[in-house]
Design brief:
Layout: E1 2-6, H1 12-21, E2 26-30, E3 43-46, E4 71-75, H2 77-85, E5 89-106, E6 121-132, E7 137-143, E8 150-153, E9 158-161, H3 173-184, H4 193-208, E10 212-217, H5 221-234, E11 238-244, H6 252-262, E12 267-271, H7 273-280, H8 286-306, E13 311-315, H9 320-323, H10 327-331, E14 353-355, H11 363-372, H12 377-380, H13 400-419, E15 428-442, E16 445-458, E17 466-467, H14 472-485, E18 489-494
Parallel strand pairs: 1-2, 1-3, 3-4, 4-9, 10-11, 10-13, 11-12, 13-14, 16-18
Antiparallel strand pairs: 5-6, 5-7, 7-8, 8-9, 15-16, 16-17
Helix pairs in contact: 4-5, 4-11, 5-11, 7-8, 13-14
The structure holds xanthosine-5'-monophosphate.
Length: 507
Amino acid sequence: NVLILDFGSQYTQLIARRVRELNIYSEIKPYNKLPEDLSKYGAVILSGSPFSVRGEDAPCPDLSKIKGKKALLAICYGAQYLAHANGGNVAPSATREYGRANLSYIKADEHFLNGIRKGSQVWMSHSDTIKDLPEKAVRLASTHDVENAAFKIGGENTYGIQFHPEVYHTKDGTQLLKNFLVNIAGLEQDWTPDAFVDTTVEELKQKIGDDKVILGLSGGVDSSVAAMLLHKAIGKHLYCIFVNNGLLRKNEFEDVLHQYKDMGLNVKGVDASARFLDALEGESDPEKKRKIIGRVFIEVFDDEAHQIENVKWLAQGTIYPDRIESLSASGGPSAVIKSHHNVGGLPDYMNLKIVEPLHLLFKDEVRRVGKSIGMEDFILGRHPFPGPGLGIRILGDITKEKVSILQEVDAIFIEGLKKWNLYDKVWQAGAMLLPVNSVGVMGDERTYEKCVALRAVESTDGMTADWVNLPYEFLQKTSNDIINKVKGVNRVVYDISSKPPATIEWE
Ligand code: XMP
């Protein structure tokens, strides 16, 4: 078990993921919330930070319970803090150092640098530099501009590095982390998806016993994997509810329901389309639409929950990134851009205990766990789809006719991506129905019909995204198919905006 102390770096989550890719469990804590009991941690990593150790508000945690007592790796700000706090000297660099650099000196026969050769590319991102090393420290590596790129403190398992081993551009970053965690800290690489499934299923059995649990399935990866883990643990005592809000993709309700039943889940499909569409009638404000869809979902789910006697638990597919107490997340007032609605965000009055089998996992780990319990790519490989569904892809007010136009357009686009082997290269794709009519000509007739926008993005977490350079031939064929097959649409455009400044969904 590895403890990562977060000083607010944008890369902190990446450190945790890299460690876990080595099959070693890691967790992140803010630097000012150091756990009392450190006995379960075999190694500690200090993250980078936007702060300068010379600044007044610089994070300065007391590391006396860690340094010299546990294997310690300090990255970037962490390394500067380590130097600064132990008699070294940290000063502004002559130039701010961002981007690639190469190791020009590497100390020979050093376990920490095993397998890493002179010239190896590393990634820098700092404006301070360590001019003088702390007491008892030995230089382990340098780059052209950074003399103290890596050091260790003699007589301790304490290491500092100025560059970022967690980012992709540090070519031997994983090797370095492995050297530290396995060779130096002596940790076992036993945190595998199979091991996770075994321990989680056992824990769920203990925790839940013979109680009944309800869970809202969305068709997405997280709720599906959460359901399968619970199913393995408590079988028929898990009651799944899959709500059709009338804003799903074409045939999605039937297809996914079928799939869930094949997986052996005890699932009830509830078709509440009419209830959602009634509630949405005439509403064209994006935030109000989101709120209505969220509210009706809770009402429908609550009604269903009441029909199952004696339910004690509500299961949710919450994953680790939703939960990390990050400094940036808690640090400042961030504007509400969109009020998100997720299956599972249910009110307290339901009076249920919460169980979240995936709360330790990152998204890619959820997929690996799903694979390890034999789930099909049909569910594991699906693009993310927002809770409010097509409701936020139909700009303006929503009608049944608009929903079916957009379902047809979306189906042609998504099927096309699959046929052209592009689906798995795209992180998310969909179509937007615009509240715009434009003039066209079909045969000899004038038309005045709807315009749709196609959007396909690459991303890792949806926080930032860029549009995908889809082949022109594909766009050409798709546009033709849409205009020829979907009545009511006479124009197709492709969205070439990145996030930020645009968001992925148009509402
Ligand atoms: P935006 O549009 O904010 O979307 O760039 C980022 C990611 O979040 C998804 N999204 C939602 N997911 N409930 C969800 O479960 C929502 O209300 C919601 N709104 C946006 C969006 O599809 C993209 O993957």
